[in-house]
Amino acid sequence: MRGTGSHGVMKMTVIGCGYLGATHAACMAELGHEVLGVDVDAAKIDSLAAGTVPFFEPGLDDVLRRNLAAGRLRFTTDFAEAARFGRIHFLGVGTPQQQTSGAADLTALRSAVRELVGHLRGAHLIVGKSTVPVGTCVELADEIAALARHASVDLAWNPEFLREGFAVDDTLRPDRIVVGTDPRRTTAGVAPGGAAQTPAAQTPAAQTLAEVYRSIIDDGTPYLTMDWATAELVKVSANAFLATKISFINAISEICEVAGGDVTALADAIGHDARIGRRFLNAGLGFGGGCLPKDIRAFAARAEELGVGPALSFLREVDEVNMRRRAALVGMVERACDGSVLGRNVAVLGAAFKPESDDVRDSPALAVAAQLSLRGARVAVFDPKAMVNAARVFPTLRYADSAPAAARDAEVVIVATEWAEFVHMTPAELSGAVRRRLIIDARRCLDGAAWAAAGWDYRALGSSEGGPAAPRMSVSGVTASSESLV
Ligand SMILES: NC(=O)c1ccc[n+]([C@@H]2O[C@H](COP(=O)([O-])OP(=O)(O)OC[C@H]3O[C@@H](n4cnc5c(N)ncnc54)[C@H](O)[C@@H]3O)[C@@H](O)[C@H]2O)c1
């Protein structure tokens, strides 16, 4: 346990126990707090209560079990129990993309708030961690005020920046803590008139959350307080920037593909400029997952609603560049198969949207596997951790239980997610299995020269086909496999 000392122990609930919420709940207990995790998914709650994380997140099992055993962490589906348990309630429910537009779907968030607030008595603080469109706090605060008949409920937004695969460390040692609060709030309640009254750092919510995060702040983590709108915007702006950086280098890789440049050497060279930086400049198959794609779409949709759509129209292009990488890879495989993949055996190594995660939401690897299958290829997929989730989304693909098994009789092998076991795989591990020695490195994470030396036709997405092999990333200690998308 990273202790706050008994004087700093607080009681809190975490509502929504998915990738974000389960991690947050376990890590708050790790700080020494008493935590109750809440979710509508009874199977998830049973699993967490039994000490099994229902998804893959390195290190989280240990933190979960240690804190369950210490009695600091419990789980329930009962909102009435949550309302009685403590006065601080974190919200970590999903905010996915709406099915008929790019905007965020806040149905689950609203429903969680409704469920909770109806049971509250006395003074409480609700702290949103989910990623939401700017303006959500203002709307939710009105809804909460209308629902809270027997309680005084304050609202803060504390966006989360954790990366799957590094979630425990990111939660316990974040780059910064961002807290948006209601400037009308004083310890006496909401000041009349609605005008800004209290500096953000001195609002009761900011002071309460400073106590929650005391040991992290004492370690030197910047604690940034601001108004609701800014906090909401910080999160989506950060993701918009990261997505733009990835799509920038992928757009440049489109030029390299036709002009013959080496996008990896280019990224190394421009990355030496501290103003640019080398991280998030790895060309390849682009971003996916449960955050970046839906967050940039929701941000653009919100800008439209606010009448400033042109301000973020570039995010549409960022999205287009990203999606074109998937199409480019499918095209590369087709060309490798003389124009058609119909009836050809293709091995896809990787199904998760990035390594060290079992998350397949909007996974580029899986999208490409499905596209090839739709075009008639016989696709075999292997992923170290994401097989169950992948099979749930695309049950008709064939799933092999190892990379060599997926590669058996393959005419093309694709590395679509840069798991360490693929990065460090030797050509000899696959040479005996395949029908043809052709590997497409869609993450530019392999040692192309080593594969070529072993008699393989090595091709990298983002390089001109038939051009020089892309060197493995090595500059500044940043390799494709050590970097991870949010
Ligand atoms: N996953 C990440 O890496 C990450 C990082 C930063 C921010 N976020 C944001 O955090 C939020 C959650 O993301 P996630 O990846 O954890 O999603 P998730 O789908 O893994 O988890 C969401 C959880 O909310 C639960 N839920 C749904 N409706 C509920 C309700 N009414 N009451 C209680 N629980 C309910 C679901 O059962 C599920 O367990 C999103 O807004 C996301 O953008 C996620």
Give an overview of the whole structure.
By secondary structure, this protein is an alpha/beta fold. It has 19 helices and 16 strands. Helices cover 41% and strands 14% of the residues. A six-stranded parallel beta sheet has the order 3-2-1-4-5-6, with helices on both faces. A six-stranded parallel beta sheet has the order 13-12-11-14-15-16. A two-stranded parallel ribbon has the order 7-10. Helix 6 links the parallel strand 5 (122-128) and strand 6 (151-157). The protein binds nicotinamide-adenine-dinucleotide. Nicotinamide-adenine-dinucleotide binds at residues 15-21, 38-41, 44, 92-95, 108, 111-112, 130-131, 160, 162, 164, 290-291.
List the keywords.
41% helix; globular; binds nicotinamide-adenine-dinucleotide; 19 helices; six-stranded parallel beta sheet; 486 residues; alpha/beta
Give a quick summary of the entry:
With 486 residues, this protein is of the alpha/beta class. The protein has 19 helices and 16 strands.
State the major sheet.
6 strands, parallel
**Integer-rounded radius of gyration:** 24 Å
Distance between the termini: 26 Å
Low-confidence stretches: 468-482
Structural class: alpha/beta
Query: Strand percentage, roughly?
Result: 5-15%
